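Morning F.,

Quick status update on the modeling queue. The single chain you submitted on Monday has been processed. Sequence for confirmation:
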Amino acid sequence: MSIDPREKVVLFIDGANLYATSKAIGIDIDYRRLLAEFQAKAYLLRAYYYTALVEDQEYSSIRPLIDWLDYNGFTVVTKPAKEFTDAAGRRKIKGNMDIELTVDALEMSPHFDHFVLFSGDGDFTALVAALQRKGKRVTVASTLSTPTPMISDDLRRQADFFLDVAELAKTVGRAVDRTPSAPIDRAPVPADDRAK
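Structure tokens below.
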């Protein structure tokens, strides 16, 4: 990881995108270890986690994770997901957090040196370029280790550094454990993240 220990670092996590990436490579992210990893490398100013929530559901599988993150050092940003029926009559859920993430990153830019974006979404290429024009260094975390890369080529080219989540998983990941009697002594993992 190319982070100078003197830098003030912020983490911006596109929750739906990181969830899809981690599932594609067959791991779960241990968010406690993720924070510790970056705190050990530099001054971690803030860690943001963005996701949309389906408000009218009696139980949301992502709610335990959101609550855990909120109490354990993350700034959680949510908004209600929109539910609609497509032309084929299928129920769809849409919850894009790109604008919220972008606005927060630009507003906070005077306070950090290094921006770490956990997303492969090419829509963030313009944000990365804008931050670089402000003198910020940018790392994008996604993966190339899946048959179809989870990161936009434009976003990867624009970033100063690329961090493969498959490589990061060696220190902050854990194998997916689906046994019903598995101990719950770590950050909860959503069974289904339909935020995007």
